[in-house]
Specification:
The chain is of the alpha/beta class. Helices cover about 45% and strands about 15% of the residues.
């Protein structure tokens, strides 16, 4: 490496460290430490094929991946002898897998998803060439079940595939799986499939609630979460859990790798399962639960601080996402805020502190004071 290239790398590292301290608009935990795992970065870990079946490619973390899958299968109360899953590249792949399995079960189905659904779903539906209908939402982002019923009644002759959001992108609204099931019953649609996109909120809601209203026990057929969000990982990753008898319809034997091809990508990153396994073992369920409670407390603090300076901030029930009117372009760029339809949000992820919130509120207070002073001058 030349002196110039070394300097370029140092400059890039400095930028990353600086921007990590001003990171409030996206659901990424930043408080992790995986230094114990650094020696594994010397090896090409590849979990090719089915995570439950060994392969002739033996540089893998398959046994560790199985433990991660078992943790989430138990967390989401998947059927004891009828569950399967794998570590994905993130929530988008998990959504694609759920829709793929649903399409193979019901090739003639109609897909229903709300206008607040993550952008990956529309892309996945296009990739899978599935017919779909977008459902309206209530003001805070939850699916409008009256509109869902009206749409279903028009297509009641077709099986229904419903994408339920367990935490929408902008407002962290949760769709009600029980209300969706009631709607299916009212429309007399017996052939149906419910996939829950629980990328952000699924993990901590299941930890905080004794009876999570979106899990397999309440009617989900598959659930996808992101690992790099609430838990935290240097590499984007996720987990998808599905009923095993559904997955069995799509697997096929591949002699070249000595196992079944049952995933989306075939070759899969073998390091991410180790990161997730390490975090789950290190924190345990109680540690993860405490982590969730801290984030909820920080969200409450953030709402109070913003309202104190006159900002109309709010959050959905049991959400760590604080929503408020979009500030200036400069504030949004500095703090990496995601904006949509005049709104933005702060997501109180692990790694965000009260000090970070105070610095943001200070910037916002200063901007409001300058705006007020300018308005007074112009009068």
């Amino acid at each position: 490496m030349t002196i110039y290239e070394k300097g370029q790398l140092e400059d890039y590292l400095h930028k990353v460290m600086h921007r990590a301290n001003q990171f409030l608009g996206y659901p990424i935990a930043t408080d992790f430490d995986y230094s114990d795992l650094y020696p594994l970065l010397k090896y090409p870990l590849n979990n090719v094929g089915d995570p439950l079946i060994e392969s002739t490619y033996d540089l893998n973390s398959r046994s560790i991946e199985k433990e991660v899958v078992e943790f989430f299968a138990n967390l989401f109360r998947a059927p004891k002898n009828n569950s399967w899953g794998y570590v994905t590249n993130g929530g988008s792949e998990g959504n694609l897998y759920g829709l793929y399995v649903a399409r193979e079960l019901y090739p003639n189905a109609m897909v229903y998803y709300s206008e607040a659904t993550h952008y990956s779903v529309q892309k996945n539906i296009h990739l899978l060439n599935m017919p779909s209908i977008v459902i309206r939402t209530y003001s805070k982002g939850e699916m409008d079940y009256v509109d869902l019923k009206e749409a279903m009644q028009l297509h009641r002759h077709r099986p229904a595939i419903i994408l339920a959001n367990i935490g929408t992108t902008m407002t962290e609204a949760k769709d009600d799986v029980l209300a969706i099931r009631r709607t299916l019953k009212e429309c007399a649609i017996k052939s149906h499939y419910i996939h829950c996109d629980a990328a952000l909120a699924g993990t901590y809601l299941a930890l905080l609630q004794d009876d999570p209203s979106f899990d397999f026990a309440h009617g989900a057929d598959s659930i996808a979460i992101s690992g790099h969000k609430f838990i935290g990982s240097p590499i984007p990753c996720g987990v998808v859990i599905v009923k095993k008898n559904y997955k069995d319809r799509i697997g096929r034997t591949i002699p070249y790798i000595g196992t079944l091809d049952t995933t989306i990508t075939g070759s899969r990153n073998g390091h991410s399962p180790v990161f997730l396994w390490y975090a789950l073992k290190k924190m345990g369920r109680e540690g993860l639960k405490s982590r969730a409670l801290n984030s909820l407390q920080l969200a409450d603090y953030t709402v109070q601080q913003l309202q104190h300076i006159g900002i109309k901030a709010w959050r959905n029930n049991s959400a760590i996402t604080v929503v408020f009117p979009q500030p200036s372009k400069e504030i949004c760029i500095k703090w990496q805020l995601a904006c949509e339809n005049g709104l933005t949000h702060i997501i109180c992820m692990p790694g965000v502190t009260t000090e970070t919130i105070d610095r943001f509120v200070s910037d916002l207070t200063e901007e409001l004071a300058m705006t007020l002073a300018l308005d007074n001058e112009q009068r």
